[in-house]
Design a protein that fits this description.
about 775 residues; alpha+beta; Penicillin-binding protein 1b fold; Penicillin binding protein transpeptidase fold; 5 domains; 5-stranded mixed β-sheet; 25 helices; elongated
Length: about 775
């Protein structure tokens, strides 16, 4: 506390000199002198206070760094299905810039179906991935070759740094990328000092001559046209004070600048300035520091900036809004010319560099490198999953790096098709306010690839994918029939689709009905699921027990309150689209419970791995029973309530799925999976009014239009040991059965083949060496053991 020591010495000197006693002899002089002493004491204490403020903030945690959220990395490998347009779109989303003769990291050049790029350094969970110059050639919408551009060496796999998709900010919504003194380009440092503070290296925080010169010029002009503040004063104003134009603020600024220079080196002050300076606005996000501004304006790392780009950033310092290169390009270009003149005069750049920079484009790209919550619904899910392990302050101040599972290509397809399909469905039904939600995950590992919380993808607010709990209708029926199969039933077991009356737990009688208000008599279990017969479903569910069906639903992944009432068998239970996706994930994963997740790993601000969100797998159902129910779900799409999907997807994909419709057509659902992806769609209105759409005419339409653009893989179910096939006939079913006049080939668990059926060879039998790995084998590659 040097200032306190000075004050104590001053007090002792005053006491030794007897000044107080002498002052007492002259009343007028004593009052004046006493006021001076009091003023001096107050100022001394105030300066001590400012000194404490300066050092506490500068020595402590200077900035609250938001957690930065990234999409999944783009992995390029020979044979990967991707078009040149899709690859270019991915690069643009990740902040790459299109240019001619790409040399620097973050740039790419496209010639037809060949793209040359230079990837950027990026710290993944498994370490640093260094920058690589790559040439990617695409043929037939698949990657044909990957070469190192510098050596021509073939590469089988390359990983591109992921797109920054958002941040979790503190209340002030400031964002920055922190850099060290060593990371500041020398050209930027020399230019900044030449333009803003020529005597930075020699002054003590203030430049009196500059202040007087600015005061004279402003007085003569009758307005404030020039400032005399040093870089240190600017840092103090931005870091500690407000922008109010008062003498008291100016006094504080001057004193604090002197104190800052007394305690810290020029390098420390300059680096803090480079990280703190405000350089633009990205929607609700304030862009601070040269490093983030370089990415925001030019899609470049700070060290890759050219002379003209450095001139733009240094010019913006004077007025980020006034000289905004996008909103006020002419002003910015004129300001850049002024900065380039100074750079030439100060020998920072050569004459050739000067003329080249002066003739260059202002930005070189029209697309904004925005990092502020591009996908708010998905980020909402990420935040909710993170909050289980981290405090809110950790997410908004510690600079965490969140690596997620979001696939930008899938997300873009969801957003585009969701908006277009809902608009078309509104025209068809003449309804208004139709909303929707969708969740897409990987069939094998439960990673959530895309999520839409409404038809307006960029609009934050009510997230229907996570928070809209709506009756699921017939989506629950596979749980009913899976329970029956686990209790001795087969796909051929006869069920009566006839009127039924049951006691209602709330009093009175419950008398369900079929959607078409028809009775179908005696039908096989398979037909009841494929065509979604309500009465046959209730028959099966009540025979095995509603509570057992509830337990099955919980094993599948359903959470929350599940009332064990008969109406539960027809979907009188509300779930969110995300909850439905978790339930169907177990069907898609062949009976393995795989918790869905949106996060792959979390790194600290120092790029140290803090947590990895690995795959967790638990086998909850016998593979034979899941194979039977999934076979039925395939039939529901190929010939049942989901058959209209053939308008969008080829039947050869063997898609499995189930439609769902709630009472009075208020909710439209479809949940289904292909060989590689599971997806759930919900449609409805926020005020819960009827929408005039069934699961088939509404949600299935959206599901099909989205999946059609994602190159889905065929669903080839893994036939487990213990399955046999037999042909059953219509002898045991009534005239109303869809088996009338024919037969059906069905799978059975061994020793459950009905009498009268003919045993046949399995249509799915292939030599084991030629078979694709089963689900357990595929899941193992994601496991840490």
């Amino acid at each position: 506390m040097a200032l306190i020591d000075i004050f104590n010495k001053f007090k002792d000197r005053v006491k030794e000199a007897g000044i107080i006693k002498r002052l007492m002899r002259s009343p007028l002089k004593s009052v004046f002198a006493l006021l001076l002493i009091i003023t001096g004491v107050v100022l001394t204490f105030y300066v001590v206070h400012l000194d404490i403020v300066i050092r506490q903030k500068f020595d402590g945690k200077r900035w609250s760094l938001p957690a930065v959220v990234y999409a999944r990395p783009l992995e390029l490998f020979i044979g990967r299905a991707i078009t040149a347009d899709q690859l270019e779109e991915e690069l643009l989303l990740a902040g790459y810039r299109r240019e001619s003769g790409v040399k620097d990291p973050g740039g790419y050049e496209r010639n037809g179906e060949t793209i040359q790029l230079v990837s950027r350094d990026f710290h993944f969970a498994d370490g640093l991935e260094k920058s690589l110059p790559l040439t990617v050639s695409i043929s037939g919408n698949r990657i044909d070759t990957i070469l190192r551009s510098d050596s021509g060496i073939n590469i089988s796999l390359a990983r591109i740094d992921p797109a920054r998709i958002g941040s979790f900010h503190p209340r002030q919504h400031e964002d920055r990328i922190l850099i060290t003194k060593e990371e500041l380009p020398a050209m930027l440092v020399r230019t900044l000092i030449a333009v803003e503070d020529k005597k930075f290296e020699s002054h003590i925080g203030l430049d009196p001559l500059a202040i007087l010169r600015a005061a004279f010029i402003n007085l003569r002009a009758g307005a404030t046209i020039q400032g005399g503040s040093t870089l240190t004063q600017q840092l103090v104003k931005n870091f500690y004070l407000t922008s109010e134009q008062t003498l008291w603020r100016k006094f504080n600024e001057a004193v604090m600048a002197l104190l800052l220079e007394a305690h810290y080196s020029k390098d420390e002050i300059l680096t803090a300035y480079a990280n703190e300076i405000f350089l633009g606005q990205d929607g609700g996000r304030a862009v601070h520091g040269f490093a983030l501004a370089a990415q925001f304006y030019f899609r470049r790392n700070l060290g890759d900036l050219k002379a003209d780009q450095i001139a733009v950033l240094v010019g913006i310092v004077k007025g980020p809004s006034y000289y905004d290169p996008r909103r006020n390009p002419e002003r910015c270009r004129e300001r850049r010319a002024v900065i380039l003149d100074i750079m030439q005069q100060e020998k920072i750049i050569t004459d050739d560099q000067y003329h080249q920079a002066l003739a260059s484009e202002l930005l070189g790209t029209d697309r904004v490198m925005s990092g502020f919550n591009r996908f708010p619904a998905f980020l909402d899910l990420v935040r909710r999953q993170l909050i289980r392990d981290y405090h809110e302050e950790d997410l908004t101040s510690d600079g965490l790096k969140i690596l997620t599972t979001l696939d930008p290509m899938v997300q873009k397809q969801v957003e585009q098709e969701m908006a277009e399909s809902l608009a078309e469905l509104e025209k068809q039904t003449e309804s208004k306010g139709l909303e929707g939600a969708m969740v897409i995950s990987s069939r094998e590992n439960g990673e959530i690839l895309a999520l839409a919380g409404g038809r307006k993808s960029f609009q934050s607010g009510f997230n229907r994918a996570l928070d809209a709990k709506r009756p699921v209708g017939s989506l629950i029926k596979p749980a009913v029939f899976l329970t029956a199969l686990m209790n001795g039933y087969t796909l051929a077991s006869p069920l009566d689709d006839m009127p039924i009356s049951l006691d209602n737990p709330g009093g009175g009688r419950w008398e369900p009905d079929n959607f078409d208000h028809r009775y179908h008599g005696r039908v096989p279990l398979l037909e009841a699921l494929v065509f979604s017969y309500n009465l046959a479903t209730v028959k099966a569910g009540t025979e095995v027990g509603v509570e057992q069906v509830v337990q099955t639903a919980r094993k599948l992944g359903a959470e929350g309150k599940l009332p064990p009432y008969p109406s539960f068998l027809l979907g009188a239970v509300s779930m969110t689209p995300l909850e439905v996706a978790q339930l169907y994930q177990t069907f898609a994963s062949d009976g393995f419970y795989v918790p869905q997740r949106a996060i792959s790993s979390v790194l600290g601000a120092d790029n140290r791995l803090l947590q990895r969100y690995g795959l967790s797998v638990e086998q909850r159902f016998e593979p034979q029973h899941i194979f039977l129910i999934n076979t039925a779900l395939q039939r529901a799409v190929s010939e049942g309530t989901g058959s209209s999907l053939s308008r969008n997807l080829s039947p050869s994909l063997h898609t499995a799925g189930k439609t769902g419709t709630s009472d009075d057509l208020r909710d439209s659902w479809f949940a289904g999976f292909t060989g590689d992806r599971l997806a759930v769609v919900w449609l409805g209105t926020d005020d819960n009014k009827p929408i005039g759409l069934t699961g088939s005419s509404g949600a299935l339409v959206v599901w099909g239009s989205v999946m059609a653009g994602l190159n889905p893989q065929p669903l080839d179910l893994d036939e487990p040991p213990g399955i046999v096939w037999a042909r059953v006939y219509d002898n045991d079913y009534g005239a109303g059965s869809n088996y009338k006049g024919g037969s059906d080939l069905l799978p059975f668990v061994e020793e459950t083949i009905p009498s009268g059926a003919d045993l046949v060879a399995s249509p799915a039998i292939v030599e084991k060496k030629n078979r694709a790995p089963n689900m357990l084998e595929r899941l193992r590659k994601w496991l840490p053991w």
